[in-house]
Amino acid sequence: MRPTDMSSSSESRESWRSNTVDLTHLTIHEMQAMLATREVSATELVRSVLDRITRLDGQVAAYTTVTEEIALEQAGTVDRLFAVGTPLPPLAGIPLAIKDVICTKGVRTTCASKMLESYEPPYDATVIRRLKAQEAVLLGKTNMDEFAMGSSTENSSFFRTRNPWALDYVPGGSSGGSAAAVAADLCAAALGSDTGGSIRQPASFCGIAGLKPTYGRVSRYGLVAFASSLDQIGPFAKDIHDCALLLHAIAGHDPCDSTSANLPVPDYSSALTGDVRGVRIGIPDDYFIEGMDPEVEAAIWTAIRTLKDLGVTQEKVSLPHTPYAIATYYLVATAEASSNLGRYDGVRYGYRTLRPTDLLEMYQRSRQEGFGPEVKRRILLGTYALSAGYYDAYYLKAQKVRTLIRRDFEQAFEQCDVIATPTSPTPPFKFGEKTEDPLQMYLSDIFTISVNLAGLPGISIPCGFTKAGLPIGLQLIGKPFDEATILKVAHAYEQATDWHRRKPPL
What we know:
Layout: H1 10-20, H2 28-36, H3 42-60, E1 63-66, H4 68-83, E2 95-99, H5 126-133, E3 137-142, H6 176-183, E4 189-194, H7 200-206, E5 209-212, E6 232-237, H8 240-250, E7 280-284, H9 294-309, E8 313-317, H10 325-340, H11 359-370, H12 373-386, H13 391-412, E9 418-422, H14 438-442, H15 449-454, E10 458-465, E11 471-478, H16 483-496
Parallel strand pairs: 2-3, 2-4, 7-8, 7-9
Antiparallel strand pairs: 1-3, 4-6, 5-6, 5-10, 9-11, 10-11
Helix pairs in contact: 3-4, 6-7, 8-16, 10-12, 10-13
């Protein structure tokens, strides 16, 4: 039932909205304004998004699970609190989606894998607890590459998520479901995880904002681990203001995560002044490589010129160990994956094979049947890298190169405040285009991986479209724990352009 102080003219309110605004198109801060003035109730807002999911998710396939009942119950709670005048936090009543790699108590968390197809966690991840404390509304879980291993969401064990801008193209990965849901207005914003580009690359492919925070800024407690020294949770949003709001809600120290940084969390929204005069932008030649799509390169240089017109100064910087990032990443990440995924043995939880003859066969068949081909490929690579006789030659050497990559950034940031690069060397590609060649797929993350290896914050923002109407993303990389500066620069660029206002033709 709608609160009494909001019931005066339901029909006229619906008529007014139908002539002025589609609620599902709104940003978080626009929704906040309408909720605060009682132009719309949380229940009406959430119903409008759920109705859109019903109409369109059959085309996009962004969600693995939609929690309609839970969402409407949470929205009803917010409406009752509004009705009695209870002061509410910024995300109250805002409909959000969650990547299916983040634990949600009593709601399936599958990692898009047969291994965890029926798993319901007995606890909430820290980021979920923080969203619930904000009275945010959780719509459901989004599709992904299995165990976050992939760059196209083609590795999901369930189905492929499609790019809302062109349904025969990939949305990126591994957080393709979250990115597609935001781009298609199937939620106001979403959470994803980023191990080697899994927030920024799909954000670029879907024409939205996606932020990977500094390693340790956001708690990983309750994030199903892929590579523990690289994984980070971060937001997808329709604009930079929303990114700032969502990051502020989930960031901060967590005693449940030993890698969580005990540092104060700034008010990120206050950094969005629009004034970037004097900010030094570093441009690394190392990221403008042979084979980059010419439309991507042209869009990036146009974006850099726009930033220059806004008052930033341009500096040339060098990141000489960038060519070694892919090899380094696929040794470090797969080694950690091999270790982390050893827990899926068919005994404690997850998929168990039927009628094994003995314990060893149960282990072997459970893992063989439960994991998809890309996950098995990475487990084998990681196990090989960690094996006797190869540890020093591969894993240890990769860790040494990782240190060199981090030092590259440290030296570059002596000359600049923010580094600007393409997010991806190409626009979105068609389904099946790279599945036969894993190395070509891995190269999709060539511009994002170094940021994870160095533990830095990075954001992708829309900066143009190809002639075929496919989105292009600009990546901004910041100093450790300086998300505020990259948000400030991204916001200033956003205000000077209209790329973020464009909507897919759904």
